[in-house]
Design brief:
- Two copies of one chain form a homodimer.
- Chain A has six helices and 16 strands.
- In chain A, strand 9 and strand 10 form a beta hairpin.
- Chain A is 15% helix and 24% strand.
- In chain A, the strands form three sheets. The first copy, chain A, has an eight-stranded antiparallel barrel with strand order 2-3-13-11-12-5-4-14. A five-stranded antiparallel sheet of chain A has the order 6-10-9-8-7, with no helix packed on it.
- Chains A and B meet through helix 1, strand 4 and strand 5 of A and helix 1, strand 4 and strand 5 of B.
Chain lengths: 316, 316
Amino acid sequence: MPPITLALLAALCLAAAPLSYAAKARAPARPASAPAPPTTAEVLQASSAGDWRALDASHTLLMELASGPVLIELAPRFAPRHVANILTLTRERYFDGLAVLRVQDNYVAQWGDPDAEAAEKARPLGKAERKLPAEFDVPLRGLPLTPLADADGWAPVTGWVDGFPVAADPRRQRAWLAHCYGMVGAGRDNPADSSNGTELYAVIGHSPRGLDRNITVVGRVLSGIDKLSALPRGGNNMGFYDQPEQRHAIRSVRVLDELPPEQRPALEVLRTDTATWRALLEARRNRREPWFVHRSGHIGLCNATVPTRPASKPTS
Amino acid sequence: MPPITLALLAALCLAAAPLSYAAKARAPARPASAPAPPTTAEVLQASSAGDWRALDASHTLLMELASGPVLIELAPRFAPRHVANILTLTRERYFDGLAVLRVQDNYVAQWGDPDAEAAEKARPLGKAERKLPAEFDVPLRGLPLTPLADADGWAPVTGWVDGFPVAADPRRQRAWLAHCYGMVGAGRDNPADSSNGTELYAVIGHSPRGLDRNITVVGRVLSGIDKLSALPRGGNNMGFYDQPEQRHAIRSVRVLDELPPEQRPALEVLRTDTATWRALLEARRNRREPWFVHRSGHIGLCNATVPTRPASKPTS
């Protein structure tokens, strides 16, 4: 049993199209003369430069942890007030020297001010807002949603907006960011409007979609999620670290536009409003790589990670 | 913003019942005089001793990693040949001194013999089988399935058998173990029958259900998954470690019945064929804890983790 084994699998396994079981049973066989549908790798190889976009330097954060860099794309369309506050906090260096306080397995890694509750020791919020409205959902109307036809279970409609996984309820005409792996949210207490962006978390386990519409989601990790997901789990209830020295230091957080262009991570993100993205979803639903003996004919919203690649030029 | 914030959330958040959106819209309101439905904690507090079962010492493995103990429950009902081979390999000390070779973020941690492909250095398999048939699915008929009514997307029917998450296709009359977080499978190469249980993996990210029916699933991690999920990610393609010294040592693997009773982990597992389990699912679909402002009315197969608790007496 060579160690390549599962390896081989994974090479293929970045992913898995929206046919129901019934539809699959009805789907006609491809004529022998038709060209084979592409694999996920072939879809990406065939992509054009226009299928990719640069990072938005004014809405992307570079968080330098002791474990390495984490790149976070903010979602102003979904949480404008929280995003504006996080940008203010970042520009005022609120997060520098704070720490990852909590890592709960199969759930979240959370960072903020360990002394936030200690009146004298708490870090001042400067010009940032102390109190914000909850931003749990937004109007569905006008949202440029690339829909996913596959059944979701958690919501009647799902898809992507600007690369973010989104769920929606057409009856109520509301849409919201879905708690997929790597999504970033703003911790809160019992009152719905008790988050202000000073305490943030990233999802590091099976996507806890039960949190959707219960908390303000502010963005997603574009790269470096492993710098959070591989941290030691905390021994206390809910993954809080027992001892202050177990906390994991945040060296700095910067908005990319604060950095000289040559210091900005040079990364491009696949656009989700493209034929390439739709082809990638189909290649993930019905895997064509030789390892696969069964095609699931389905892809989950949170299984369909949006690809990134090194950029040909620096982020401007 | 107190650090309890997300914390509070998580206390509640072990979970999220099978009503569709349409059904929810139709569901009548609870009369004001009816007692409030229980929370997840209240369901577990009200459980009886008979709702819990002991570990099966002859089908549970204790893997001692340098990072700590990992307890794995095998699934002989679903993969009898692989499970028998893994038990033989374990009893012959095949795994002792081997290593975790690969940790790929949001995917799998994989362990085995780093020299498996080197003819002279490969560890001998002793009395274990070199070649086994693929065990990707089993007959649905006769399977004691506790069904989950909630829509899944990946399969027309899902539920639990012996505490294992299961998916099924009534049309084909087949059932299989689902690739949820913490599930353990047997790595293979391209031929479907190229796994023999010498190389194993555990799911450490958003559940890769596209693997279902493509590989033999042999069990699940009952406790200690964090000893695998928090390991450093490998730098090579697909998460293989670059350098041999980065590999994470397996000190020993034992079948529980090889250990004196006092050395066996004393743990009980909630039975999934009970009214308590069904009540827990409902409490997770519609969270009653005060933190929640939105009830999703849905629970995912892979979000509904089966609880364990310290046992009142040692595993016999």
